[in-house]
Write a structure and sequence with these properties.
The chain is mainly alpha-helical. The protein has 8 helices and 2 strands, in the order ααααββαααα. A two-stranded antiparallel ribbon has the order 1-2. GO terms for molecular function: hydrolase activity.
Length: about 200
Amino acid sequence: MDYKAEFIRIFSENVTRPGADKLLDWLATTDFYTAPASTRFHGACESGLVMHSLNVYHVLTERYFHAEEDSLETYTIVSLLHDLCKANYYKAGFRNVKNDTTGQWEKVPNFTVQDAFPYGHGEKSVYLIERFLRLKTAEAVAIRWHMGGFDDSVRGGSFTISNAYDQYPLAVKLHLADLEATYLLEKGTSSVNRK
């Protein structure tokens, strides 16, 4: 399957907001379509990021979208772009791992983080998107909090995420779609050794 073509088709059909074409142009200058989604967990493989973005889109629209009350443009934006912060974020390389059978050290592929713009996860995606197109408040909040309790800023016991989820159901839906895509649909999609 050509994830890049599917991403561009869905985005182009569903997002007509001013700046959408410029955002797509910018994406073409990044590694978004070839980057992994993580260093060694879900989608730690070539094109894992775009695969994950599409999986989140499909879960979000198939489970939670109601045409009579929701905007397909909004659902498309938040799902396809929630991890935009991962463009130009990972670096492919190798690391040494001891083979349990032979006792020999072997080079295995891996990905490392090389964050040139350490601005946070969700907020960095919001920032990058808004360089090109204006987000609605619910969209920005959903993208900002899509990591749920996995976000570093929540670990200290912040009530902000609870308030965000209470006020913006889209944020809850995006978080659930992200979890389902990550832990159910993408199980076993890593091409690197997790040792």
